[in-house]
Structures are given as structure tokens and as C-alpha cells.
Design brief:
Elements (H helix, E strand, L loop, with lengths): L1 E7 L7 H12 L3 E7 L5 H10 L2 E6 L4 H7 L2 E2 L1 H6 L4 E4 L5 E4 L2 H13 L7 E5 L3 H12 L4 E5 L3 H10 L6 E4 L8 E6 L17 E9 L8 H8 L4 E3 L2 H16 L6 H11 L1
Helix pairs in contact: 1-9, 5-6, 5-9
This protein binds 2'-monophosphoadenosine-5'-diphosphate.
The site of 2'-monophosphoadenosine-5'-diphosphate has 15 residues, from helix 6.
Amino acid sequence: SDRYAVMGNPVAHSKSPQIHQLFAEQTGQALSYEKILVPLGEFQQALEAFRDSGGKGLNITVPFKQDAREVAHSVSERARAGGAVNTLLFESNGRIFGDNTDGTGLVRDLRNNHAVHLAGKRILILGAGGAVRGVLPALLGELPESITIANRTETKAIELAALFNAKLPVKGCGYDALGERFDIVINGTSAGLTGELPPLPHTLLREGASCYDMVYGDIPTVFQQWALEHDAALALDGLGMLVEQAAESFFIWRGISPDTAPVIEVLRQAMA
Ligand code: ATR
């Protein structure tokens, strides 16, 4: 059967093998999917070893998404604009195609699983690191009214906003400059991993606003808790995004779109 894997460091806690196993069973595809811990500085060697042993494609996670972009012979527009590649396809002619499915995963989770539509909405994104940059092309593609990027280091937010000379307003600022209200707030910072929360004003959400944390855990994240305390209509975590980005990678490799809902359900149950 065809071999796939996720490469990262760390990678032990990745749920991707379980997700792709469930996709494969559901769609009747014969494939294996493993996780490969790659030592820092050895991405290129690890990739070549995997490909030479018959590997057909890879998912790439922290900290190799930039390396993956450099190793690809061609990349999708969404990966180029986002500066990161999370999916590699080894083509039969020896070329390597790179794509980034994270942003599409986020948009699909919001739209398909939670009926949150971004068109015409005022969106706020917290953070200006690699995770945020990777999803911005997909968010822009939904044609929101505007996108504001707020970051602890204000200059990074301003620089990131300037990268996307979009047809709609994209602006960067620090947290202290957040004076308006938003329809959708997406947390793309890594602050929650240490139980921290960016300093957010109490007057951030419009009535009926949706909040989305790109990370997830066994218990609601600090940002989800903040959202509930501030009367958000929805306070979502990133588990659905994880499964949706995996489904889009599966489609790139196999040409089949798996049904994500039952897989999200299995993972959610396992966390409870
Ligand atoms: P990632 O790949 O997860 O995006 P990153 O590129 O290191 O990782 O970016 C981390 C993001 O989380 C940054 O926007 C960072 O803010 P700075 O650019 O000011 O460093 C943000 N972040 C991390 N810890 C934070 C905290 N305690 N409070 C606010 N923002 C934080």
C-alpha cells in the first residue's frame, strides 16, 4: 500500500496518523500513514530517505513548514502567499508539489461544521506568526469586509498586513489599539499553550460574534473561556480545523474528499 507520513519535531502527539487511517478506511483506500521525528537540520535527508523508500506524500509540521516550501519544485498560490507548506506530493515524474491546507481547513470548519460565513464580516486575527500567515490567503479568499491582525509585537502585524495587498482592507496593530468590535475573532497566537491570553479589551465582540482558537485541548482553551465570558455566540477550538486540513491533504494525494464529520466525532469522543 502507498506510504504517507507526517514529519515534525516534536511529532509524538500528532493525531494525523489516526485521522488518515480513519479516512482510508472510510474511502476504501489502501495506504499507511506514520509519524517521523526529524532531528533539527536533517529535514532534507529525512525527506529523501522517505521518498526513496517509496513514500508518496508528506504532511509537514513545526518547525519544517518553511523548509518544505523550499524543497518543493512547485507550490500552490495559497502556499506561496502564506509562506509555508504543510503538504507535499511526490509526483511520478520526480517533482515535488507543495501546498498548504491549513487555511482551507479553518475556513471549511467554520463554514461547513459551524455555519460561520466570512464573506462581508469584520475579522480579527490574534498573532502574526507562521500559523497566522499560513491561513491568511484562505481567509482573504472568502472576501470578508476587513481583516485586522493584532500582535504583541506590533511591527510584525503591520509587516504581515502589508504583505497582502488585497482588494479589501488588511491592517496590523498592537493589542492596545483595538478600539472597534468584530464579528469573528481567531486566535492564532501560541500564548494559550502556556495558559496565557493576549490583553484583549472587553468591548471586542459584536453581538452574535464567533470566536475560534486554532489550537485545542482536552479542556476549553483560555481564549475559548474568554469568549464565553464575553457572550460570544460560538467559542470554538481548532480540532475541526485539524481534521479539515487533513481531509484537504488526503484529497491532494488520493483525489477523494473524505467525510470529516464522523472523524471529528471520533476524536472529540476520545478527548472527553
Ligand atoms: P506559530 O508558528 O505558532 O505562529 P510563531 O511564528 O513563533 O509560532 O508565532 C507565535 C505567535 O504567538 C506570535 O504572534 C507571538 O507574538 P510575538 O510576535 O509578539 O512574539 C504570539 N505569542 C506568543 N506568546 C504570546 C503571549 N504570551 N502573549 C501574546 N502573544 C503571544
